[in-house]
């Protein structure tokens, strides 16, 4: 049997969820014919057949997680001796199935957990993950009562649901950012009282962000942490954080924003939104951002500490516009203010660089047009 394995689908992706098969065992297929749809990093991708031939076996079912390099399809043909062994990931063998669903095992030395062997045994019996138990014993020791309390709470809730698709990708990306980035955040307000009625806030933010990148190019960069090397990038490829409701958070990339006119940028944003709503956004449009913008104030919130995703080094967040009293000479006047939050990776961006970037953004936003 000739085994076709899940190919590398993009930068840093390690797995994908199988959404739908388009073929069945015994079927003859042509080269480049769609075989299966998989979901990864907020996009549904069709994988084409690498060859013509007859399908002998499907190695996974819809809803299962398949690791990159894991077997997908067996074609009739020369035998692949590795087919019976699955894909070896570290010391763990898998043939594309989710190895565990629900709470993780509790007797595996959870970091920071202090409990006696008897309490650990009780937790295993009650299927309680010690990692989610708040200790009440002396010196942070988890007691039997703590475990029983959590067991009662869990018995009244729905079973744990494994994260799938975009939420799984989000969890992995946030864990990476938390583990790697030395994040620092600076906040300030932009006075937008002079904006004309009907001004497109997102387009103005994009323009101002480009001004920030021109003033301090160090924030439009990638940091290669393994080599302690920085790449300052000339082109601004802007990641736009987009909330899709139940669909979750997407960060598609609007390319070369510094060289595009407002009408072209608005068309690009509209197409981006339509692709997200139809879950048809190409995977390549979710990769390669050089800096990120989050206009979370369209929903709620004044200031925030947005998360920087490696290898980028900065993200600008815009909060909810408010009217506030500000001094104007000897008078106090009401002005419209746009709160801004700039998070940067302090491993590679200095506080001065971040402040100068934000100053340039504020100065541009203060202009009437």
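-> sequence recovered:
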């Amino acid at each position: 049997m000739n085994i076709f394995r899940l190919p590398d689908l993009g930068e840093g992706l390690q797995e994908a969820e199988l959404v739908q098969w388009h073929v069945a065992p015994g079927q003859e297929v042509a080269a480049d014919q769609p075989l299966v749809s998989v979901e990864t990093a907020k996009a549904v991708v069709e994988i084409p057949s690498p060859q013509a031939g007859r399908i002998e076996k499907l190695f996974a079912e819809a809803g299962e997680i398949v690791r990159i390099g894991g077997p997908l399809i067996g074609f009739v043909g020369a035998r692949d001796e590795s087919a019976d062994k699955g894909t070896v990931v570290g010391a763990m063998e898998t043939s594309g199935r989710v190895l565990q669903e629900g709470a993780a095992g509790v007797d595996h030395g959870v970091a920071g957990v202090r409990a006696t062997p008897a309490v650990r045994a009780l937790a295993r019996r009650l299927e309680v993950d010690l990692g989610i138990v708040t200790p009440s014993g002396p010196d942070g020791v988890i007691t039997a009562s703590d475990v029983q309390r959590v067991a009662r709470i869990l018995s009244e809730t729905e079973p744990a649901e494994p994260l799938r698709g975009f939420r799984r990708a989000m969890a992995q990306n946030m864990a990476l950012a938390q583990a790697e980035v030395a994040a620092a955040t600076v906040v300030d307000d932009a006075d937008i009282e002079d904006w004309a009625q009907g001004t497109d806030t997102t387009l103005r933010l994009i323009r101002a962000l480009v001004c920030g990148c021109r003033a301090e190019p160090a924030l439009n960069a990638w940091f290669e942490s393994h080599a302690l090397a920085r790449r300052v990038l000339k082109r601004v490829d802007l990641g736009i954080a987009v909330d899709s409701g139940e669909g979750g958070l997407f960060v598609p990339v609007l390319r070369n924003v510094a060289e595009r006119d407002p009408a072209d940028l608005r068309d690009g944003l509209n197409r981006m939104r339509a692709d997200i709503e139809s879950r048809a956004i190409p995977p390549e449009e979710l990769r390669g951002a050089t800096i990120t913008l989050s206009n979370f104030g369209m929903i709620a919130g004044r200031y925030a500490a947005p998360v920087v995703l490696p290898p980028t080094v900065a993200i600008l967040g815009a909060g909810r516009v408010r009217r506030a009293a500000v001094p104007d000479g000897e008078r106090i006047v009401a002005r419209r203010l746009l709160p801004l939050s700039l998070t940067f990776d302090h491993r590679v961006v200095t506080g001065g660089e971040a402040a100068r970037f934000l100053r340039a953004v504020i100065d541009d936003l203060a202009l009437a047009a």
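The chain has three domains: 2-94, 102-161, 167-365.
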